[in-house]
Amino acid sequence: MLRALLLYLSQAQWARNMVTGWRVAWRVASRFVAGETLEEAVALVKELNRRGFYVTLDHLGEYTSNEAEAVRSTDEAIEIIEAIENEDLQSGLSIKLSQIGMAIDEALCENNLHRILMAAQKYGIFVRIDMEDSTYVDRTLDLYQKMRQSFGIDTIGLVLQSYLYRSLKDAEQVTQDGTRIRLVKGAYKEPGEVAFPEKADVDAEFDRITEVLIKAALKTGCVEAGPKLPPLIAIASHDDLRVRYAKAAAEKAGLTRRTVEFQMLNGIRRDLQDSLLAEGYPVRIYVPWGSEWYPYMVRRLAERPANLWFFISNLLRR
Fold first, then answer.
1. Closest Cα to residue 133, out of 286, 317, 299?
2. Distances (CA, A) of 41 to 89, 94, 237, 238, 262
3. What are 253-312's pLDDT values in tens digits?
4. Whether 117 contacts 147, CB under 8 Å
5. What is the mean pLDDT of residues 84-98?
6. Cβ(103)–Cβ(63) under 8 Å?
7. Residues marked as catalytic
8. CA 145/CA 178 separation, integer angstroms
9. Residues 125-170: pLDDT tens digits?
10. Is residue 92 left, alpha or beta, with left meaning phi > 0 and alpha meaning psi from -120 to 50?
């Protein structure tokens, strides 16, 4: 019930208008968000790289409403790619298709994504297409397949969400050609017809898809993680049990630690990030930045009670 309420608030304009006016809200958001400018994001990436972490940069924003906004978001994505190259950052890029025009016109979105991938391929930088709510899945997979034909699996990858009933089958299909997958649980409010309503079922499906990724890595080639290019298996979870399962399954299959990357959100489970890095696993931190931080922050509060308590405790100190 609480998670559903928070996910509703993440998209409610009246709540956004109210909360973003609170100074404490940015104090909480800054735990998760690098800042509102690319310069602030670059500074954080350099610090994380210095400590041994890889990064995925994400300029916050989604559901653009007109062509000008979509083109501007595309230009900003290319600016990030150039910053990664010019600043010698150990980072890739994540992009949401709704941010570059998918909700407006699919041809517009395709053209914008092509521009981004052209820039990324030029510098050898990996771009991950984020998976959004269930209404975007088929269109996302279709556009990915089209772009993969032009740019290859070393330039573009996907995210799959274990709370969707369809994701296990999607994983089995897209990994046949070595597609690089970031596996997440999912953070959107979905109807019971398309997504598991119970956490235990989401967790069990996460582990099943982890096994699919491991089998695919063994079949297509166990590529080790690099600063800009992740391996096929990217386990994005802060859940000790999911991490433990992935480690045990990979070890049982004979995979080396460098072929299994763990990905985590900036500011969450820093203890787990550090321990995995110390064990020799590649760890990639998802670093968001930009002025559109409100919906991102509220979705993080919905994911873990500890995040919500962090918000409330700061609110009480106002």
1. 299
2. 11, 14, 22, 22, 21
3. 999 999 999 999 998 889 999 999 999 999 999 999 887 766 666 666 666 555 555 444
4. yes
5. 96
6. yes
7. 130, 182
8. 12
9. 999 999 999 999 999 999 999 999 999 999 999 999 999 999 999 9
10. beta
pTM for this model (two decimals): 0.87
Instruction: Please give the full DSSP string across the chain, using - where no structure is assigned.
Output: -HHHHHHHHHH-HHHHHHHTT-HHHHHHHTTT---SSHHHHHHHHHHHHHTT-EEEEEE------SHHHHHHHHHHHHHHHHHHHHTT-SEEEEE-GGGGTTTT-HHHHHHHHHHHHHHHHHHT--EEEPP-SGGGHHHHHHHHHHHHHHH-TTTEEEEEETTBTTHHHHHHHHGGGT--EEEE---S---TTTB--SHHHHHHHHHHHHHHHHHHHHHH--PPP-SS---SEEEE---HHHHHHHHHHHHHHT--GGGEEEEEETTS-HHHHHHHHHTT--EEEEEEESS--HHHHHHHHHH-HHHHHHHHHHHHT-
Beta bridge mates, 255 = none
Angstrom distance (rounded) from CA 159 to CA 180 = 9
The mean of the pLDDT values for the chain is: 87
What are the tens digits of pLDDT across the range 101-133? 999 999 999 999 999 999 999 999 999 999 999
Residues 6+ apart with CB under 8 A from 272: 238, 240, 243, 264
- Selection from 43, 130, 134 nearest residue 93 by Cα: 130
Quote the CA–CA distance of 167 and 209 in Å, as a whole number: 8
Distance between CA atoms of residues 100 and 68, nearest Å:
10
68/108 Cα distance (integer angstroms): 11
Per-residue pLDDT averaged across 69-81, rounded?
Answer: 96
Taking alpha carbons only, the member of 102, 298, 263, 34 closest to residue 188 is 298
CB 236 within 8 A of CB 264: yes
